Amino acid sequence: MAVSAGLVASFAGVVYARARSMAHGALEEELRFRSTTLAAMLEVLPGGEVEFEVDRGMLPDFEREGAWLTILDERGKAIVLSPNLAGSPLPSPGPWTAGPGEVAEIDGPGGVPAALLTRSIEAAVEGGPPGGAAPRRFQVLVALDARERDRALADLALFLAATGGGAVLLSLGLGILLARSVLGPVHRMTAEAATLTPEDMERRLRPDTVVKELHRLAETLNSALDRLGEAMARQRRFASDASHELRTPVSVLMANAELLLRRPRSEEEYRMGLRRQLKTAGQMRDVAENLLALARADASADGFARDPLLLDEVAAAAAADFAPLAEEGGVRLEVANGRPVPVTGDPVHLHRLVSNLVSNAVKFTPAGGVVSVRASAEDGEATLTVEDTGPGIAKEHLGRIFDRFYRICDARHQAEGAGLGLAIVDGIVRAHGGRIEVESRPGEGSRFRVRMALRGHGDGGEES
Ligand code: ADP
Known about the structure:
Number of strands: 14
Distance between the termini: 62 Å
Helix content: 40-55%
Number of helices: 10
Bound molecules: adenosine-5'-diphosphate
Strand content: 15-25%
């Protein structure tokens, strides 16, 4: 705003200065013309008398021309006065100096503003012997009424101030209108967004209250709110499931302890009771550890190491942990030996990922079945496959088994897990920028397949 006002002011200033110098110049030219013609009429006779070769009617007339004339001799005596001066000469000039003369702004006779030119001239003595009498010196003073010029300049100044001020005010008004029309909807949206609270996650910004250009912003904010709302709902569900999951074994622990203490028992009974307590406490520890793993995977991928690893080695080591369990259950555990599969990732978390998949496969596969674990590099991707010949997973459950605390009701295995294993697998896969798929045929078996970037193929790692 200040910039546009400054521009307008300097433009008006330039225009006025130019017009002023032109007006003053025109008046000065007129003064010079007059003084030259009037000076030419001055004659010094051989006797020394001065003759002004005009009759009084030719002297400047203020009524008609707005002009005054005074001619002074070397003693400063007025020898010619225009009649309109009524006997009093124009203001007395400085000493005689040769040259074109100076123009001054004065208060002329009767207080009329005037421009005054004072010129010093020499006039030769008429008909005198050459080299005889020295020329005589005079000062010619011509003044012109400057009111019209000053009025025109004042009008111009007024016009410039009015139009300039108008332009500034107009641009100010337009600027305010524009800012209002753009910022108004933003303010409304801001005010609306400020009233949103976590308790009120259903409410959304109304795009119809804002101008078209801001629709996208409102929609983007709304979709961010949708995601936030979903995340908060998931967190709430997670917290309530987690507390339920931990409360159940605590209740079992307390009930067992109360039962044991109800009456005196034999040492053997106490031992059995303590063993049960130990088992329940072990389950609680597992749940707590799993919750911690999930929270870490949730926090962000930042907490994950980015080490160069061989996925086939991680898979073989994790599967080997389950060899005794598989043998105990009469399940054949096969680990395929193939080419090295270089990836970038967190060794501990990837070990846990393979363990959870193999643990489920061994747990759910009945005696005589097979569990096979294989890591391979295909189409620039690292793939880990864990396949079993277990009971399979019905279609209606397939979409939900990666949800936290989701378990398929099965009398045989119900007590063994909290439904967190696959949720953890999913979190780790995502943190590695990968994805997981499951295929299953009830009665025939299941196949879990994890895909992630091969090292040197778009994972930011280096080719090994
Ligand atoms: P949990 O830790 O309780 O095993 P998961 O999240 O690992 O929970 O698995 C969720 C559910 O998916 C399990 O309750 C089980 O019913 C089913 N499931 C997982 N893996 C298999 C598998 N290999 N074969 C059959 N069912 C499986």
